[in-house]
Structures are given as C-alpha cells and as structure tokens.
Amino acid sequence: MEQIIEYFSANPVHLAAALVLAFIILFSFVKKLLKLGLVIIAVFIVYIAFLVYTGREFDPDQISAARQKAAEIINEGKESLEETIEKKKNQAVDNLFKEP
Fold it and tell me: Is the pTM for the entire model greater than 0.90?
C-alpha cells in the first residue's frame, strides 16, 4: 500500500488519471442508484394508480409488512454472506500457513 502511495506521489499525472477513473466509477454507481430509485418510485406510482382504478383502498400496512419482510430477507442474506466470507477468509489463511 505504501508503494502505491509513493508511486502516485512521484507521478502526479498518473494520480490525476487514477482520480479521474475513480470519479467516473463513482459517478456511474451513483447514476445507477438514481435510476433504480426512479424505477422504484415509478412502480409505486403505477401501483397506486392501479388501486385507484380498481376501486381498492391504499393500505399502508401492506407496505409496512412488505418492507419488514424485505428487511428480514436482506438481513438473512447479509448474515449468510458474512458467514461465507469468514469461511473463505479462514480457508485462505489456512492455505497460506499450510506446510508444503
């Protein structure tokens, strides 16, 4: 890590190029998040329009229940991912210190 810092300190042109590349990657990530947010809002508006068209009432409890269910699923996935990462990390460490 220290070598990378020294390299970019010695070569400001490469540092500028790396910063531009990092900015482009960050900008594209934010852009994708905004698109996702707009799609979610559009789907929600279509859902409300469907409810109004069919004469059903909008029930905020349904949204709350769906949000809680989604949060549970996301937390389960997060825990599973953390366990998998921990296992793979331990395997990599074991392989490093394994005698040939």
Answer: no
48 and 58 Cβ atoms separated by less than 8 Å: yes
Report in angstroms the alpha-carbon separations of 75 from 18, 40, 61, 78: 35, 20, 21, 5
Cβ count within 10 A of residue 85: 10
Structure tokens at 29: 């990530």
Enumerate the domain spans of the chain.
1-58, 59-100
Tokens linked to 99: 């005698």
Distance CA 23, CA 19 (A): 6
pLDDT in tens, 56-89: 877 778 778 888 998 899 889 889 988 999 888 8
